């Protein structure tokens, strides 16, 4: 069994190097761009989609063969070529520089894996199979998508707005924990899903002992 440590990186404005220009590379690039990464592609040729992104200045395409110098300044490295020799050089160079590297179709050579991700607002659920079966990860993600709807995004947004009230109302970490647990009443998610904000309001007023109309109204907008 592979032992991996789950972690979320903030890659905004961080240099992510993608070596390769095919369809798999394009999927990686689009995923990185969604997270506002500074994407640099190294490849003599790329797909039309990647070329279009480069023309739009959404990423930087270095039209050349890979060299170890391309790794300087990288935060994450992706080896996505159809050349085993190039793949191996990217991995060896990245490891020598202490850089995390993801290798297409070679999970045993990866030092990090990209999971299947489900997002509901600021709630992020990631599913990883340590690279053994992306198809299974996608299937589990779909199952989770059916279970966790947009109401969870609303609940998380509400909890974020309630957090300062709870911190002010509770004197110790144990009291805060107990208060948060009371707020997350078993029916809360069902009330939000069905639009019963009147029930949410009454429940929060009882638990917190104060009016929450402003918070409820903002959360519903």
Task: Tell me what you see in this structure.
It is a single chain. The protein is of the alpha/beta class and 221 residues long. The chain folds into three domains: 15-114, NAD(P)-binding Rossmann-like Domain (Rossmann fold); 115-147; 151-220, no CATH class. Helices cover 47% and strands 14% of the residues. It has nine helices and seven strands. It has a five-stranded parallel beta sheet with strand order 3-2-1-4-5, sandwiched between helices. Strands 6-7 form a two-stranded antiparallel ribbon. α1 (23-34) links the parallel β1 and β2 (38-42). α5 runs antiparallel to α9 (213-220). The protein starts with 14 loop residues before the first strand and ends with a helix. The mean pLDDT is 94.
Name the poorly predicted regions: none
- Which percent range describes the beta-strand content? 5-15%
Distance between the termini: 46 Å
Question: Helix segment count?
Answer: 9
User: Would you tell me which CATH topology of the largest domain applies?
Assistant: Rossmann fold
Largest β-sheet summary: 5 strands, parallel
State Rg. 23 Å
Per DSSP E runs of 2 or more residues, the count of β-strands stands at: 7
| CATH domain class of the largest domain | Alpha Beta
- The sequence of SSEs as H and E is EHEHEEHEEEHHHHHH
The CATH superfamily of the largest domain turns out to be NAD(P)-binding Rossmann-like Domain
State the CATH architecture of the largest domain. 3-Layer(aba) Sandwich
- The dominant shape is elongated
Assign a percent range to the helix content.
40-55%
Oligomer state of the chains in this structure: single chain
Structural category: alpha/beta
The overall pLDDT, averaged over residues, is: 94
Q: How many domains, as an integer?
A: 3
Q: Which sequence of strands runs across the widest sheet?
A: 3-2-1-4-5
């Amino acid at each position: 069994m592979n032992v991996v440590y789950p972690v979320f990186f903030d890659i905004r404005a961080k240099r992510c190097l993608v070596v390769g220009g095919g369809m798999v590379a394009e999927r990686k690039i689009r995923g990185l761009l969604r997270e506002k990464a500074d994407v640099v592609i190294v490849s003599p040729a790329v797909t039309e989609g990647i070329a279009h992104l480069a023309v739009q200045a959404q990423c930087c395409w270095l039209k050349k063969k890979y060299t170890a110098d391309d790794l300087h300044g990288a935060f994450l490295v992706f080896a996505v070529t159809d050349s085993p020799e190039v793949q191996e050089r990217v991995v060896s160079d990245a490891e020598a520089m202490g850089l995390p590297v993801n290798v297409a179709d070679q999970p045993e050579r990866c030092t990090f894996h990209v999971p299947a991700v489900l997002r509901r607002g600021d709630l992020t659920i990631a599913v990883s199979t340590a690279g053994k079966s992306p198809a299974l990860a996608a299937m589990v993600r779909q199952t989770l998508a059916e279970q966790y709807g947009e109401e969870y995004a609303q609940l998380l947004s509400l909890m974020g707005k309630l957090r300062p009230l709870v911190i002010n109302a509770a004197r110790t970490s144990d009291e805060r924990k107990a208060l948060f647990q009371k707020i997350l009443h078993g029916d809360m998610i069902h009330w939000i899903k069905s639009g019963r904000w009147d029930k949410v309001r009454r429940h929060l007023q009882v638990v917190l002992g104060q009016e929450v109309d402003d918070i409820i109204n903002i959360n519903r907008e």
